[in-house]
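Progress report, Aim 2. The chain analyzed during this reporting quarter is listed below.
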Amino acid sequence: MPDDYLRFIDKLEYYINDCRLEFIKPKESKHYKELNSHNRFGQYPIGVLGDVEIFFVHYKNEEEAREKWERRAKRINWDNLIIKFNDQNGCTEQQLNDFNNCMKYKKMICFTAKKYPGKYNVHMWEFKKDGYVVDDKYYVFQHVNLKKLIDA
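Predicted structure tokens for the chain:
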């Protein structure tokens, strides 16, 4: 969720290096009230790092989620991070501004369905009728040269 994600990137090294990934039941999620009506909620593991919840929507169980998390955490190149955000999951304009005001990272990108001011924003008109970016991974290459961003 946007608030958890912004807290996560604000202290990324702390959450990655100092917090142990734990798992909770869906009803224990602080976002339960807003998510329990979603059709897939409860069908994927929910991890917790300190005060941040992570929804492992692409994994079937806690073991698979933990294995992927730990393997990927070890591979982080702290000198070449790209921080991505978008306007889904109830993201507010204030949260978009908070992301745009983050000065910790050299490479940041934010996908939005509406035009917002901000140097990191990429407006994705495909999602205008949805009001937020539903899924950016299939459309990202139409808007951003990722190789150029990675190599920058």
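Residues 2-74 form one domain. The first helix runs from residue 2 to 10. These observations will guide the mutagenesis work planned for the next reporting period.
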